[in-house]
Design goal:
heterodimer; A: 475 residues; mainly alpha; 19 helices; 1% strand; globular; B: 117 residues; 4 helices; flat
């Protein structure tokens, strides 16, 4: 099949946008770089439009190295939306921080890495996308160069991301050695007729460990609270949802497309990992007093819920993962944009400083509440529907895991509502109202509205996700 | 005796020769210590003043910039060797690749990475 560049339209557009912003940042004088944020936002929205118009396109490039299908496209739309929301919500924050051009172009490049990951059909492409995303995130994490915490977070992220990449690569190289191919579709054919050798087991363990780091599944989670706390808040939100969603996209491709025969033997391992991740994430979140740290542990727990969808590896499971990841983007953007703007105004991430936020800024408090309750899975918010789709798939066979998920969701309500209590019950120490600039307000309202609407009326999104999950098995 | 016995004997003799010297000297050497003799053996002079100093990172920036051209060469070389058979498409691809690298260099230049202050 001849190479058709038009299948890569989205990636090329995003790369051009990232480069263009970097170049514009060089040309435009320092004082007037404020417009770069808007340019990035409209660029991303334009590409999002192109992405939506490409729905239904299904191709394999270069013998299966790059897979273009609805599954990949759904993830790409999710990443573009996430990047656009992060940019919209962080304009004020970035103007305070300086270096707008670098910030926006790195955000765009991180999104590009995620998009490549979603389409990757072989290990090399997968790794390229992963590294592009990771390197962009490393730069973003230590963006507040003068803040020791941010630099420390960046350092930790470099070291641990490097280590996890090494582990992942080793697993991939073992698989290549065993099968003689790096293309997942070919690997699955070779694996299907091979017995389960110790080397193969080692390869799968290494792959799970390497990607487990990226989704911050326990026991590979130790980096995330520190990095999430130290990174600039908009970056944290992008890291929490984007990087995680992309890694889930890759996990599904790798194990369901690449190693389908083996996957059946590994569901117990994944089930246990998911259970441990939910338990540890939720229990450790309880005593946290820093809002960003609390959200970091909650995001570990969320990874545990999403992992549930990997267990059945059926169309329903994949649908659950995609649905939940999509909702999680909005809930995360809502919660972290509140935290980020609150930090811009007060310079604090501590929970006690959130006292009386409902009186100072009713919108911020409301969005925080809706986002947290959605993460807890309280109906009628979107998180409930997402959890329903996820746990529905494992009721036969893994009922115990569904119970753990249920109990841990109840535990999570406790610490989520503690935040709500501080915001709504306590009297503010400093009662001056917080004025929201319009981009932040728009981000918050969008996050809240989507979380509520999808919760009440999940039909349309569910159908889109169904079609995307269906295309996954067509290759 | 197999052919490998020679190797084994060689190693055994080597170990005895090396360890023997140390053990013998440990057994028979005179024990007259003084402070200078008991100092830890280290190369170089004792340090003067605080050792936690900051290093210039300019070297590092230069090294990074070097990598740009390093990577460029890695890709340019096979491309140049196969240029005849690759055709126009590969030529345009390479132009784009070099363009991206040049943007990187331009960025570094503009941000002052090439200036030695």
């Amino acid at each position: 099949m001849p190479f058709d560049p038009s299948a890569l339209t989205l990636e090329m557009l995003v790369a051009a946008l990232g480069l263009g912003i970097l170049v514009l940042g060089l040309i435009v004088p320092k004082g007037s770089r404020h417009g770069l944020g808007w340019l990035t936002l409209f660029g991303l929205l334009g590409i999002l439009g192109v992405a939506v118009s490409m729905w239904g396109d299904s191709r394999e490039l270069i013998g299966g190295m790059y897979l273009v299908d609805n599954y990949a496209l759904f993830w790409k739309i999710t990443f573009l939306l996430a990047a656009a929301l992060v940019v919209l919500g962080s304009m004020r924050y970035v103007d305070d921080m300086g270096s707008q051009a670098e910030y926006y172009s790195m955000t765009v490049f991180a999104a590009l890495g995620m998009m490549v990951m979603a389409s990757a059909g072989d290990f090399i492409t997968l790794y390229l996308g992963l590294e592009l995303m990771t390197i962009a995130f490393i730069i973003l994490v230590c963006f507040r160069k003068t803040d020791a915490k941010s630099v420390e977070a960046g350092m930790k992220y470099v070291l641990l991301a490097g280590m996890s990449s090494a582990v992942l690569l080793y697993g991939m190289s073992l698989l290549y050695g065993l099968t003689g191919s790096v293309i997942m579709l070919n690997v699955s054919q070779v694996i299907a007729v091979q017995p389960l050798t110790p080397a193969l087991i080692l390869a799968v363990v290494l792959l799970i460990a390497g990607l487990g780091f990226k989704i911050s599944a326990v026991p590979f989670h130790m980096w995330s609270p520190d990095v999430y706390e130290g990174a600039p808040t908009p970056v944290t939100s992008f890291l929490a949802m984007g990087s995680k969603a992309a890694s889930f996209a890759v996990l599904l491709r790798l194990f369901v497309t690449g190693l389908p025969g083996i996957w059946a033997n590994w569901t117990m391992v994944v089930a246990i990992l998911a259970a441990v991740t939910m338990i540890v994430g939720n229990l450790v979140a309880i005593p946290q007093t820093n809002v960003k740290r609390l959200l970091a542990y909650s995001s570990i727990a969320q990874a545990g819920y999403i992992m549930v969808g990997l267990i059945t590896a059926s169309e329903a499971g994949i649908k659950g993962v995609m649905f939940y990841a999509f909702l999680y983007v909005f809930a995360t953007v809502g919660a972290f944009t509140v935290a980020g703007y609150f930090y811009s105004v007060t310079g604090s991430d501590e929970l006690k400083d959130y006292a009386g936020l409902s009186q100072r800024s009713p919108l911020m408090a409301a969005v925080m509440l809706v986002a947290l309750l959605s993460m807890a899975g309280i109906p009628p918010l979107a998180g409930f529907v997402g959890k329903f789709y996820l746990f529905k798939t494992i009721v036969d066979g893994y009922l115990w895991l569904a119970f753990i998920g249920l109990i841990m969701s109840m535990v999570s309500v406790y610490y989520y509502l503690r935040v709500a209590l501080v915001m709504y019950r306590d009297e503010p120490l400093d009662p001056t109202p917080i004025k929201l600039p319009s981009p932040v307000a728009v981000t918050l309202i969008l996050a809240m509205v989507v979380t509520m609407v999808v919760g009440i009326y999940p039909g349309p999104l569910s159908e889109v996700v169904n079609s995307a999950a269906h295309s996954f098995f067509l290759h | 005796m197999s052919d490998w016995a020679g190797v084994f004997i060689f190693f055994a003799v080597a170990i005895v020769f090396g360890a023997g010297g140390i053990v013998t000297s440990f057994l028979i050497h005179p024990r007259r210590n003084n402070p200078v003799k008991l100092e830890e053996y280290e190369c170089g002079l004792p340090t003067q003043g605080p050792t936690w100093v900051q290093f210039r990172t300019s070297y590092f920036l230069y090294a990074l910039l070097f990598v740009i051209f390093d990577v460029e060469t890695i890709y340019l070389y096979p491309w140049a060797v196969k240029f005849q058979s690759l055709g126009l498409f590969a030529f345009i691809e390479m132009i784009i690749f070099i363009f991206i690298l040049i943007v990187g260099l331009w960025y570094a230049w503009k941000e002052g990475a090439l200036e030695w202050k």
